[in-house]
Amino acid sequence: MRTPLIAGNWKMFKTVFEAVAFAKEFKSLVKDVANVDIVLAPPFTAMHPVSEALRASNVAVASQDLFWEKDGAYTGAVSPAMVREAGAEYAIVGHSERRRLFGDTDVAVNRKVRAAIDADLTPIFCVGETLDEREANATLAVLDRQLQGGLDAITGEQVAALVIAYEPVWAIGTGRVATAAQAQDAHAHIRGRLRTWFGADVADRCRILYGGSVKPDNIAELIAEADVDGALVGGASLDVRSFGEIVTNSRRAVI
Questions:
Q1: How far apart are CA 119 and CA 78, in angstroms?
Q2: CA distance 122 to 9
Q3: With 90 as the cut, is the pLDDT of residue 10 above it?
């Protein structure tokens, strides 16, 4: 059985002081949680101090993005090696906000996925459709395009080890959430594509998260679905007790 993963993406919130205070309180709230992988993605400025605050705990750190080059004249960019050195074990790649606001293409996302893997980071590779695309019945075509582009030149073994996050763009930060059935349909489609392209073993091992207005009161229903393996949480991960409840409720749903 796949181990559930709950990741909190803080986006551009929390100073270093606020982030470290959260990390210290949070690790005490979830210290007895087993059978769930827990990840926090603070801003770049707070990654190292947060990873130090979480040392020897059951909570890992992710970067919210990275650049694919190892070093060079890339003002404002952060390399995979820098991310790893700062204490990250995971890297969020292809988030819809990176695609929409910063112009990340499927080709760029693929380069980031491969760079993360090469740096011994586990990519959390995001895919998902906009409201217009959903209303045009293009959801599955969009997912296929993003999956094919993002996983180009990735081996089956590498796909099995990474994490895919399905995030319907229309449900991010809007208070709207896909129903458990809608989430399951998209996740089943994604896993079906992995099965076709990489084989049943890879598809069965790869974890697929749901992202989009996840809250303490809907995580249990979502994660109870056969192909939903956890959540990439935005706004609700900014409150320490709310995020702690999401982690706890996800554990209860699968034990």
A1: 13
A2: 15
A3: yes
Check if the beta carbon of residue 210 is closer than 8 Å to that of residue 166.
Answer: yes
66-96: buried (b, 16+ CB within 10 Å) or exposed (e) per residue? bbbeeeeeeeeebbbbbbbebbbbbbbbbbb
Interval 49-62: pLDDT, tens? 999 999 999 999 99
63 DSSP 8-state letter: E
Query: Does residue 167 carry a catalytic annotation?
Result: yes
Looking at residue 61, what DSSP letter applies?
A: E
Phi, psi of 33 (to 5 degrees): -75, 125
- Which one of 95, 129, 133, 225 is the catalytic residue? 95
Are the C-beta atoms of residues 104 and 96 closer than 8 Å to each other?
A: no
Which member of 97, 129, 133, 167 is catalytic? 167
Q: Report d(CA 23, CA 56) in Å as an integer.
A: 12
Domains and CATH numbers, the chain: 5-254 (3.20.20.70)
Told to judge if 221 belongs to the known catalytic residues of this protein, a careful annotator would answer no
What does pTM read for this prediction? 0.97
Partners of 125 in the β-ladder: 93, 164
Listed in sequence order, the DSSP H helices in 199-218 are: 200-205
